[in-house]
Structure formats: C-alpha cells, structure tokens
Amino acid sequence: MNKPDKIILHHSATDGGTFESIKRYHMQTNGWRDIGYHYLIEQDGSLHKGRAENDTGAHCKEQRCNFTSLGICLVGNFDKYEPNQKQLDTLDKLLKDIFNRYGKLSIYTHNHFAGYKTCPGTRFPMDKVINRAHSNNTGVSEVAKSWQQQTGEKAIDSLAKKGLIANSKDWKGKDLLNENTPLWLFFEMMNRISGVR
Ligand SMILES: [Zn+2]
Asked: Distance from the CA of 153 to the center of ligand 1, in angstroms?
C-alpha cells in the first residue's frame, strides 16, 4: 500500500531503453514483481504507466519512500546531458495531473534521499522542472495558441474572400500563424485600407 505525499524523480542512467526493456530488467534481473516506478517517460516523450499509484513502489528504499511517494523515471543519463524538451513537456503535464489529484506534493530528486546516487543526474534541471510545475502559464498559453490559430485562419479566409490575399492555403498552418503573424496581418490590412500601397 502506497500513500503518496511526495514525488521522486529518477533517470534510467542509460543512454537508451524503453518501458518494456526497463520493466524486463527490473523483473528478470532484479527479480521484482513489476517495474519499480509508477511512471516512465521514454526519450520520444511518451508516458508509460508502471505500478498503480496506490501500489508500493521499488525506486527509493530510504526513509520508507516506497510507501509514501510516486516514482517517476525519465529514460536517459542526465549525468551526461539534459532531458530533451519532449520529455520535460510530458513530465510537466504529468506533474500537473498529479497536483490536480493530490494537491501540490513536494517534488524531490532520488539523490535527496539516497545521497550516494546522483539520480536523476547532475544535469537534470530540477529548479526549472519545479518552477514550471507550479506555474499555470503552460495551460493558458496552449489554449491561447489554439485560439490564435483559429482566429488567424478565419481572418485569412475573410481576407481571401474580399480578394485582399491570394493563395489563402499558403498563409495557414501552425508554423505560419505564430505569435507575430496576426500583428503583421493587421499592419498589412491597415496599409491597404489606408491606401499606402
Ligand atoms: Zn533513482
């Protein structure tokens, strides 16, 4: 039985590996009944569910942490390099999801409890991860981005209908409708309306 009051972060300390390969290692080599973690994030950013959250972990034996924490592992060796952006984005979504269900649990490195290990690696950006998890900006900006995309597409359609732009398809797309494009479109429209060109 696990009663999570904290989150503990790990790295696999391997350059490669998948949920399946790490699960196999924990079961066949370590002789455990399941992968040791509750969650694992592969290098492509995919999230994999390990043990159930109310199930005792096998990721941090110090201070009874296996009975009082959720264990999250990111695949990679972060003594050598930082986790990639996809992994950090997935981790942030997962942390926010956990916060929604448990409240804002404290986030620790494995090293905090097991000082003889560097886990999750000396180059793991712990401060950034914690700050981002506690900010709501990501969610808001993601919603804003989709609004911007939709509004931008509508604006382009109506400009095309009025014959102000040709090839409206070329104007659309997530890359084109970035933050600066609507402003630029606005200037372009104002220029045309005012007859400057
Ligand atoms: Zn660890």
From this structure: 46
**Ligand 1 midpoint to CA 65 (Å):** 12
Distance, in Å, from the CA atom of 131 to the CA atom of 135, rounded to the nearest integer, reads: 6
For the segment 114-135, what is each residue's pLDDT rounded down to a tens digit? 999 999 999 999 999 999 999 8
Q: Please state the φ and ψ torsions of residue 118, each to the nearest 5 degrees.
A: -90, -10
Query: Which residues does 79 contact at the CB level (< 8 Å), separation at least 6?
Result: 11, 13, 118, 121, 122, 123
Please say if the pLDDT value at position 24 is more than 80.
yes
Q: How far is the CA of 121 from the centre of ligand 1 (A)?
A: 9
Quick one: average pLDDT of 91-95? Answer: 97
Predicted TM-score (pTM) of the model is 0.71
CA of residue 30 to ligand 1 center, whole Å: 15
The pLDDT value given to residue 68: 98
Residue extents of the structural domains in the chain: 6-135, 140-193
- Looking at residue 171, its pLDDT comes to 74
The domain defined by 6-135 carries CATH number 2.60.40.2950: no
